[in-house]
Amino acid sequence: MKRRSFLQVAAAAPLFAQAPKQAPKTEWIAWIGTYTGGKLKSKGIYAYRWIPGEGKFTPIGLAAETASPSFLAVHPNQQFLYAVNEVDQGGVTAFKIDPATGQLKALTKVSSKGSWPCHLAVERHGRWVYTANYNNGTVAALPIQSDGSLGEASAFVQHNGASVDRERQKGPHAHATVLSPDNRYMLVADLGLDQVLAYPIDSESGGINVREPIVTKVTPGSGPRHLVFRPDGKFVYVLGEMSCTVTSYKYNAQRATFEEPQTVSTLPDGFNGIKSGAEIAIRGNVLYASNRGPDTIAAFRIDPASGRLTPAGQTPTKGKTPRNFAIDPTGNWLLASNQDSDTVVPFKINPTNGALTPTGDPWPVSSPVCVVFSAVK
User: Which pLDDT tens digit goes with each residue over 90-116?
Assistant: First the structure.
């Protein structure tokens, strides 16, 4: 069954007290993953040179031709990039990065052990890639070789079950693989089960111990899509795709359990149209979440002590269907990928209150759905 879009289914300085310091690099490559096939014009992964100090970008063009690279991740050593191939016979492709030219050299493509993989993450020490397969609810660990290439899956798990929505949740739909800040667990948000499953990272079991997941049940019908940890690891925030909500939890790192939930809506006040939550990220003490339908990014202040959220405004993304956004390595810019208007729009982040201001021209890219960065030497 082909995965369907949601439209088819239908102020004060302390805010940034924990904000990242200015990165030492002055120039980066922004890699943009896209959807391909059918009537879409995109052919794979595109690249831009990005100078954040000047807010300046220069298009490089097509960096690698590959099928529907809808989610990307960069190796910790900045030398390799990994992309899902979100198609029926799902795959993950490894690329060698050429920072001088902004081109990618394909190394290997291996099975994702499922169909329509939609997310991946690289283990903090660069030993495994973890990927989530949306269509049939499977998760795999893929070993990274010394040359950056990928081996066949060393660990694999099939989720089972359903939840309350008879159309969208009649089976599992693994939607994200996220590493805990202490690198002890790999957490999976499963939209179809209304669960977050934490798998211990275990080299003896091929990357993850699939027999001992710690399961957290979230609000029925919320459809967990993505999640993000506060950098100190004390709190975790789960984005509900179907409910357009963010739920904050106190995180017990020893047991990988979620406690003391608080749920807030990501939608603009009074919005009653078609809706779908998409992406979530933290910058300092501000959390951002994107809404498809109203096409906005919601901002929330994070209380430093309790981790609880307070709404802090909505910003239109200047395009349609913001499936993804990314905060650049300096922490000063947010780049929103508007899938259905073929643009990536840069927003300057106010260093005092986290407000977003669109600055400069949109980046033209067909069907953009993911942005990641690597350093230019």
Answer: 999 999 999 999 999 999 999 999 999
- Residue 300 in tokens: 């929330």
Cβ proximity of 326 and 371 under 8 Å: yes
Q: What is the pLDDT of residue 26?
A: 87
Show Cβ contacts of residue 28 under 8 Å, excluding neighbours closer than 6 positions: 49, 50, 51, 52, 328, 329, 373, 374, 375, 376
CA-to-CA separations, 330 to 230, 239, 320, 374, in angstroms, rounded: 17, 24, 26, 12
- What predicted TM-score, i.e. pTM, was given to this entire model? 0.93
Nearest by Cα to 230 from 181, 288, 193, 274: 181
**CA dihedral sign of residues 78, 94, 173, 342:** positive
Which sign does the torsion angle of CA 310, 343, 42, 78 carry?
Answer: negative
| Residues paired with residue 178 on neighbouring β-strands, in sequence order | 187
Nearest 10 degrees: Cα torsion 57, 60, 66, 71: -10
* Alpha-carbon torsion angle 83, 87, 88, 89, nearest 10: -40
Residue 31: how many CA atoms within 13 Å on its side-chain side?
Answer: 31
Sequence-distant (6+) residues with CB within 8 A of 162 are 169, 170, 171, 172, 192, 193
Task: Output phi, psi for 269, to 5 deg.
Answer: -55, 130
pLDDT in tens, 30-57: 999 999 999 999 999 999 999 999 888 9
| Distance, CA of 127 to CA of 124 (rounded, Å) | 8
What pLDDT digit, counting tens, does each position of 304-318 carry?
999 999 999 999 999
At 316-365, the pLDDT tens digits run 999 999 999 999 999 999 999 999 999 999 999 999 999 999 998 899 99
- Is residue 131 within 8 A of residue 123, CB to CB? The reply is no
pLDDT for 15 equals 45
- Contacts of residue 204, defined as CB under 8 A and 6 or more positions apart, other chains included, come to none
Q: What percentage of the chain reaches a pLDDT higher than 70? A: 93
DSSP-assigned states of every residue in 45-96: EEEEEEETTTTEEEEEEEEEE-S----EEE-TTSSEEEEEE-SSS-EEEEEE
